[in-house]
Design goal:
The chain has helices spanning 2-12, 29-39, 43-61, 73-76, 80-95, 110-121, 147-160, 176-179, 188-200, 220-229, 267-270, 286-302, and strands at residues 16-18, 67-68, 99-106, 123-126, 129-132, 138-141, 163-169, 182-183, 186-187, 211-215, 235-237, 261-265. The protein has 306 residues and is α/β, with parallel strands linked by helices. The longest helix is centred in the first third of the chain and has 19 residues, at 43-61. The radius of gyration is 19 Å and the shape is globular. It starts with a helix and ends with a helix.
Length: 306
């Protein structure tokens, strides 16, 4: 899938991933009212509203971007009905030809990590037949447990030709409490990056590894250093837009070939209609507002190399 992702980034000239992280407050009232009337003002109704909202956004942007990144917690908050909406969202995006990065941040001991990897990136054998789980193309993985937690994902990725993005330096303000701690003179995030580079050499696509890294846009100076540590790792860059990152900060995340990074924007796109800049679209034009936000983000990122 890393080869497909890179080819689609080139074809659409857009190193952009849209974060499908729907809070119910982002969903326009007319969609909520329609689904609550049909299914009730309950978890089912909320989940169906989220799914309808997602479909509208995907329909508006799938020709512009190569990938989406649904964050599973935003669906799990609605319980089983929300998880069903997550799966339906994944399926709908793949029908549109999009690469799906499951933002699940899993990481555990070997057998548990294997179950996570199988559930999200592969299929499980039941009664002699194989049944796929959520079937994303990539998953985000927490490396805190070390190689024991990563290897099962790598084994599944090797089998299925899929990939992972390992948390290296996250975009949240308190990430430094642990990630910036010095160990033998190096920050912990740099040691994790060295491991990502090492693991990735064992799982290569044509030009980049199936083992990528998550490095926040809010730390561009660290991104520059980590780009050198992980030359063959694709970097997933959260924190653009709503969290403060902007295109001019991000050049160092990319390699000289203009590749090597894909930048995520979530509420800056999916809730664009709530911003003053896009308020003229109104609630019913939420999907068109999202499309315009993608076009503006694309222009901002392409300006890095001009």
């Amino acid at each position: 899938m890393i080869n497909k992702l890179i080819n689609d980034i080139k074809a659409k000239n857009a190193p952009i991933v849209v974060g499908l992280d729907p809070m119910l407050k982002y969903v326009p009232s007319f969609i909520q009212e329609e689904k609550f009337k049909e299914f009730g003002a309950n978890a089912k109704g909320a989940s169906e509203a989220v799914l309808e909202y997602n479909k509208g956004i995907v329909d508006a942007v799938y020709d512009l971007v190569p990938a989406v990144k649904p964050q599973i917690a935003m669906y799990e908050q609605f319980g089983p009905e929300g998880v069903i909406a997550f799966k339906k969202t994944v399926d709908y995006c793949k029908e549109k030809g999009l690469t799906v990065i499951g933002d699940i941040k899993r990481g555990d001991i070997g057998s548990t990590s294997e179950a996570y990897a199988v559930g999200h990136l592969s299929s499980v054998e039941i009664g002699g037949e194989f049944h796929e789980g959520f079937n994303e193309d990539f998953a985000t993985v927490n490396p805190y447990l070390g190689y024991d937690g990563i290897k099962p994902f790598m084994d599944v990725c090797r089998k299925e030709k899929k990939g992972i993005f390992v948390l290296v330096k996250t975009s949240n303000p308190s990430s430094g409490e642990f990630q910036d701690r010095l160990i033998d003179g190096k920050p912990l995030y740099e040691l994790v990056a060295e491991k990502v580079d090492e693991w990735g050499k064992d799982l290569m696509g044509d030009s980049y590894s199936y083992v990528g890294a998550v490095v926040g846009a809010t730390y561009p100076e660290m991104g520059a250093a980590l780009r050198k540590v992980m030359p063959k790792a694709y970097i997933l860059v959260p924190g653009y837009g709503a969290q403060g990152g902007k295109g001019s900060d991000l050049k160092a995340f990319f390699n000289e070939d203009g590749l090597g990074a894909i930048v995520n924007s979530s509420r800056g796109i999916i809730a664009a209609y709530k911003q003053e800049k896009y308020s003229s679209f109104g609630e019913r034009g939420y999907a068109d507002a999202a499309r315009q936000a993608v076009l503006d983000m694309k222009a901002d990122l392409n300006g890095i190399f001009t």
